[in-house]
Structure formats: C-alpha cells, structure tokens
Amino acid sequence: MSSSQSTPATATKPQRVLACILCQSRKVKCDRKFPCSNCVKSGATCVPAGSIARQRRRRFPERELLDRLRRYEGLLRHNNIEFEPLHPSSTTDRSNPVTEGNSFELSSKIQAIDIASSVESPESEHVEETSSSKIINIWHVMNQRSQSPSDDGETDVDEYDVDKELHADIRLTNVKTALAYLYEDDDDSRFNFGARSDIDPTTLHPPQVDMIRIWQIYLDNVNPLLKVTHTPTLQTRIIAAAANLTSATPALQALMFGIYCVSMLTLSDAESVTLFGNKCGDLLRKFQLGCRQALLRCGILRTDDRDCLTAYFLYLLSTKPRAEPRSLSTNLAIAIRLAQHMGLHSEDLNSKHTAIEAELRRRLWWSIVLLDMRVSEMSDFKCSILLPGWDCKPPSNIHDFDLGTETKMPPAPHEMITEATFTVVRCELANFVRHSGYWLAFNNPSLTPLARRPPVGSSPNGDELAVIEKLVEEKYLRFCNPDNPLHFMIMWMARGYLAKHRMLAHYARHARAPSKQTEEERDLALGYALTLFDCDTKLLTSPLTKVFSWFTMTVLQFPFQAYIHVVQDLNRRPTGKLAGRAWAVMSANYTVRFTNWLGSDNNPLANIISRIVLQAWAARKAAVPAETVSVPGIVESMTNRKQTGMTPDYSLLPSWIQQGTNSDDSWMPMPIPPPMPMMNFDTFDPAYNFAWPDPMSNVQDTSSADLNMDQMNWGNPDWSSLQGGDQRW
Q: Which segments carry the region annotation Disordered (predicted)?
C-alpha cells in the first residue's frame, strides 16, 4: 500500500479498548465488553477505564533533572550558543558554532537566556506565598499551559521536543528583541537629550597621564562617599582604555567621562590649574559634553547597562551645583525609571545576579534614590521614591576586595568600619526613615498604614528614631576613629541626619496642636536644631574633611530649617535655658557658612534671614539687662550690613557658583521652562544662584509676636511663603 493511502488509515485507526476499572484492580483478564462478564457475574457496576481521567504518574527525580537539562540545551541551540552537550553524539550535528565577530550578540543572548531560565523556568513558582517580595511574572503565567506535560503524564524524556516548546511559548526576550529591532533607527533626539553631534567622544578625553591623575582624585575624593563603582575591576578596565581608547566600549567611555565630571567638582580653580593647566569650570564643561555624547552613543534612554546608568548618575551629580532643581529632578526621574527597568529596585531580581553585580546594583539604586530625595526637597516637591513599594536592601558593610568576579556567595558584612560604611550608614538611615510614620505623613499620607511601628518599649515618648539611633551608634559609630577623615564624616553626617529627622518627627507629633507643647518638649526640639548646627559646623571646619567639602556643600543639607526653628524659639523664649547656647551655636555656623566659605556675609541669603534674626535679638535685649548681654557675631555682622546699606556682592561667591548666576538650562539633557519665583526654606542652599532681591526689603519692622513659626507648614517641603526670583538653590 502506498504512503498516501496509509495516512488516512492511520488517522481512522480505532482507539485501543482498555480493561474496566474493577478488572484492573483485581488483576484479572477482562473481555473488554461493557458490562464485562466478570462484573456481570459479581453484580458489580462496570466502569470503563477511559471514562475516568488517568492520574498523572509522578516522574522520578532523575527524569526531572534530565528534562531540565534537555530544555536548557535546547535553549542554547535555539540561540546558536556553543556548549558541551550531555550526549555529544546525538547533539553535535544540531549545534551551530558562533563566529568570533558576533561577540556582542553572544553576550546579549547569554544575558537573555539567563533571564529566561531564571524567570520563566517551569520549576520556579510564579508567586511565592510566604514572601511578599516575589513578583508574579505575567509571561510565566501565560506560558504555563504550553509548558505543562501531556494529559496522560507519560511523556518520555526521549520524546521531549524542546524546539516544539520554544515555538509554543511566547518568550519575553523574543518580544523585547523584536521591539528593539522595530525602533533601532530612533536616536532618542526627539526627547531633547540632545542630538548626536559629529564630535568623537574619544577626542574629548584628557591626556593619558591626566586620566590616571583624575582617576586617583576620584578614588580619594569621591569613591569613599558614593561607592557606585568597584575599584579593583574598574581600575583594570580604565588602564586598558587609557592605553587604547578606541577599544573602550561606549558604556565604559561614558563612565570615564562621568568620573571626570564628578572629580572636577571636588577641585578648586587653583588646584585645577596646578594639576591640569585649566580652570575646573572649563574642564567640567568639556567633560560634560563628552559624557553627553558618550551617553547618546549608549542609547541612554533605553539602556540596560549598569555602567551607562552609573555614568548618567555621576553626570547629573556633577550638574547639581548650577542646576535648576526642578529641571534636575525631571532628569533624575529618567534615571529612576531606567533603574526600575533594569530591576535595581527589586531584591528578588538583584539576588539572581552574581555577588559583585548584585552589590553594585544596590549601591547604584540607593545613590540615585538619595540624590533624588535631596533634589526633591530643593524643588519643592514631595519625595515620591523614598517610600515603601520596593525592597532593594541597603548595601553591605564590606570592602571592595571582598567582592571578586569569581565570588559566588555574598560575603558576610564586617562588624567594623569599612570603605563602604559611609554609604551603608546613609542607606540604613534612609531605609528606616522611608518606613516611618512621620515621613509618610509628610510625603504620602495614604501610605501611613504601611508604617513600621517600633517595638513596644523601644521608643520612649513615641520617638521612632530612638531605635535606629541606637543601632547606628552601637553598630558603626562606636568603632569610628575621629582622627580618620572618612570616620569623621560618618560620625557627624549620621548625627546631623538624625537631628534633622528628629525635628521632622517632632513637628509631626505636634502638628495638630503646636501651641500646647510643654517647655520640656520645646527645649527638646531646640536641642535637635542646635545639634544640626553643630554637625554642619564640624563638617565644614575640620581640616580632616577638606577633600569631602564638595559633598557637604553639594549633597548634604544646608541647615536653613534649623535657622528658622532657632529664631522662632528665641523670639518666643528670649530667656530660655538654651537661649545663650543657641545664639553662640547659630553664630558659629553663620560664620562658617557665610563669612568663611562664601568669603563675606555680604550675599543675598543674609538679606533673607537678617531681619528675623535682628527681631529675635531685639526680644533678647528687651528681656535681659543690657550690661549682661554680649552681642553675638551673627547679630553684629547683620547690624553692620543694615547700617552701611550693603547690597549683595555676587563677585564674592566662588567662581563655579557665579557661573550658575546667569546660566541657562542648555547643558541639561531635559530642559524645562523657567520656574515661577518661589523659595523653599526647608532646603535653601547658598551653593546655588543668588539672583533675587531681598524679599523683605519693603517689610516694616514688626514685633516678635508676629513670628509664629508654629503656624507654618513644616512638611517636607512646603515652605513657599516668601517670594524670590530665580530658584537656583
């Protein structure tokens, strides 16, 4: 019979009749008629075997293991990746070697398979009931039916056709590849990041010797505070790139430019001229141009390369001193969304990477979040990312040399100060704050039910921060050596951060009835403000932290909130038990922030606060006999300014701040229209543009009773009661 005739015969072949259920259980021969003779004799009900679904036969572990191995081999073959099969004789002819020229495609395919095997594997549960951090994968759910075994459960491993399964499933990686192919001609210029120019980024690198010098500046001044790069591995790559720039990938070049940019931020003009023969402002603009062009070549708006995102973060950080905060906040939102696309916010996804990659992902995510928190404060915007909703762990307290490319298991954190401790402490403090009730009440009240309440008895007087303060003091600060520059930064940064948030927690507790505070509660809040002054003054005056002063002035908060609180308290209680100390501490900080750092107190910020300070001093003089009152330095300076009728002298500002006075947003990737005049007293910083008039120049002197700061909104941050000009702070 011909083959053409055999096909329909095979298709119409009657199905084999099985023995009835009772005969199968009795293990007797069945005549396979229904009812069968055995059931008729016994008077039992004859049930055909085909009418009941056969129970799935449990596979033995070896078969399951072979099944998985066969499936992974099929994935490798499907993506044309070389491997050593379990049975070379049966699979050699199906393997396709990958040519050497496709190294980029090979690396991307390996990454895709890693994602597919970790997320879409049939044995991985799509939701873990015991852990809230597990994510339901929609692609896994959609493909479950195509991945399930046959109905009778008897599929043999030798008949398991991987290729059929690959075609049955809708793979997420395949969809991503198809979409990328559809839009590969889009250069992102439509989104105002800047069109790619004809400038070759390699021509904007400094000479080879300067590359190494800038790298050392980065290691000394920047790396201890940020820790977004891994020194042992990155140094090898940078040295190789310095020897042959054309061999460096676009992402590595962008990262190198980002390092140049943030390193220039730490130098004075004199230091820059001595080291490089040019002012730091000129070099910074050159390196920022190179970084933008390198980022464009990386496809920054669609990247999944951590080096590229790190370069973008460093670039944005280098623009902060002269950036309009709302424009910078918009661009930071791009960095946050890129990080979320890469899964940096998810501990479940981070844990699937190698130990070194997972740690660098955590460090980068937290660095972006902390910078966004600071910029959100400055842009009069509620912090929307430092909230519950993601579960990335804070970085581990380990050294860079604890992590290697061959490290498989995460190293145990050290119980001592390490090179990453500064970053670790900042992140642990912020991680506690984002789950605190007072923080959620100020930033997103709808999430207040998610606040983590401290254990009963662990926080006296409802002080949520007592728990984290004790933890930080016992776990880190007690090991700090105050003679070590980095240890000194850790100590006073942490204590200043806690003091600031103790003030916020105090405001939250007394928001409904601020006038009903007791004297003890007012003294407690005033003590927090004075501690914030002390910490800021120590960080700015110590010779140990000179190389880190850029971070104090650029990233950490100017204590304007403390100025407002102290002045308000001195108006209400001019003879309080802490009044004398308050005047001394505030004067010391004023001297550092204005006279020493800015070169003179003849600047616009002094115009803003001088009148309310002088009112507080008038209340002090009226309440205390004149012969017992010594004039504080802040009052003496402000009185002289008022008597001489000084106007702000912008030439006294550092050159890199003067550059921001008349600058535009052309350097920003995503420029936005100029903001409406507004001032945010919570986060005002003198390191930014001072192009505004004295907002109180036409205000008549009023009595101290007019200043009721308890009626102000102490939320984070919603202080826009005074009008100013350009908001470059």
A: 709-729
Q: Let me know: does 166 contact 147? Beta carbons within 8 Å.
A: no
- Which pLDDT score is estimated for 174? 65
Distances (CA, A) of 45 to 20, 24, 30, 694: 10, 14, 14, 100
Q: Are the C-beta atoms of residues 670 and 322 closer than 8 Å to each other? A: no
Task: Write the DSSP string, 659-684.
Answer: HHHT--STTSSS--PPPPS---TTS-
Whether residue 727 sits in one domain with residue 619: yes
One domain for residues 347 and 292? no
Domain of 368 in residue numbering reads as 323-414
- C-alpha 105/C-alpha 518 separation (Å) is 69
Strands of 188-298 (E only): list them.
Answer: none
- Crossing angle (nearest 10°) for helices 250-264 and 280-298: 160
How far is the C-alpha of 275 from the C-alpha of 289, rounded, in Å?
Answer: 21
Cα 486 from Cα 399, distance rounded (Å): 14
The band of 304, judged by pLDDT with boundaries at 50, 70 and 90, is very high
Give which of 521, 458, 523, 469 is closest to 497, Cα–Cα. Answer: 469
The answer to whether 294 and 254 are in contact (CB under 8 A) is yes
Give yes or no: residues 281 and 408 share one domain: no
Tokens, residue 401: 């040399």
Tokens of 67: 């099944």
Confidence band (pLDDT; 50, 70, 90) for 700? Answer: very low
Torsion of CA 273, 278, 281, 282, to 10 degrees: 180
Alpha carbons 258 and 163: distance in angstroms, whole number? 45
Number of domains in the chain: 5
Enter the pTM of the model. 0.69
- Whether 256 is covered by a domain: the verdict is yes
For residues 609 and 694, give the distance between their C-alpha atoms in angstroms, rounded to a whole number. 10
Cα–Cα distance, 129 to 468 (Å, whole number): 30
pLDDT band at 27 (very low <50, low <70, confident <90, very high): confident
Give the span between the Cα atoms of 128 and 133, in whole angstroms.
Answer: 8
Reported as a single tens digit per residue, the pLDDT across 379-398 is 777 888 999 999 999 999 99
Give the confidence band of 219 by pLDDT, cuts at 50, 70, 90: very high
- Same domain, residue pair 670 and 585: yes
The upper half-sphere exposure of residue 162, i.e. CA atoms within 13 Å in the direction of its Cβ, equals 17
In a domain, 562, yes or no: yes
Residue 246 belongs to some domain of the structure:
yes
CA distance linking residue 552 with residue 497, whole number of Å: 12
Question: How many CB atoms within 10 Å of residue 220?
Answer: 14
Q: DSSP character for 80?
A: T
* pLDDT above 90 (res 311): yes
Same domain? For 569 and 634 the reply is: yes
- Using the 3D structure, point to which of 252, 274, 304 is the last residue of a domain: 304
712 and 572 in a single domain? The answer is yes
Q: Which of 30, 407, 370, 432 is nearest to 233 (CA)?
A: 407
CA gyration radius, the chain: 34
Residues 702, 564 share a domain: yes
Distance between CA atoms of residues 242 and 220, nearest Å = 19
